[in-house]
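Lab notes, practical 5.
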Amino acid sequence: MITVKNLKKQFGDNVVLDGIDVHVDQGEVLAIIGPSGSGKSTFLRCLNLLEKPDEGLIQIADTKVDVKKMNAKEMHQLRQKTAMVFQHYNLFKNKTALENVTESLIIAKKMKRQEAEDIGKELLVKVGLKDQFYQYPVTLSGGQQQRVGIARALAVKPRAILFDEPTSALDPEWVSEVLQVIKDIAQLKTTMIIVTHEMQFAEEVADRVIFMADGSIVEQNNPKEMFNRPQSPRTQQFLNKIGTGELND
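Output from the prediction step:
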């Protein structure tokens, strides 16, 4: 489903991604963990071209681009393959929950409003918001706003969903409800890449876990091996600090 080769990105002299190679199968859930500043979120933003990488090949489904040579049409095609769930929701504050979900269907996919609203309502029910169709983001809890964001991502039927630390901005009381929604989506064999600092969640939901540090992939394995028998001293150090509550490494 997703193949990334030699993906590079730097800001000034700061190398953020140093030749990343990743392959994700259809229906696979990939979790990416690592310390702050390791390049995890930048990798996701480069994958859907919110950030333009400096170098590398990206293939998602049947669309393949060389980021150095890609044109506007190729960029648009690649962006259409994924949907992003952001750390800080990124909802339209002047639109209801339903309007936030249907906006891309009506504007980008030229869908009739009634059809878009039927899809939007169905998805909001799926994420547990059947009573919040017409509420604005300011009246919703953080957990509810993030679930609107997930419904919005599902609406466009992407080939893969990218989650950028979907619970990091939430109060602790709302974290479990959002994680449960993501687990439910994973059960549907949706291809997902999840950048997260929730280690237990990554262990439960992911088929594979990547540990990143300093712009590189240090180690990858199935969750059981990664969390119980990490091979790299760098991974061991990170997981030990997580275990003692030193989250920022």
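Observations recorded by the TA: Residues 2-37+55-200 form a domain with the Rossmann fold fold (CATH 3.40.50.300). The mean pLDDT is 93.
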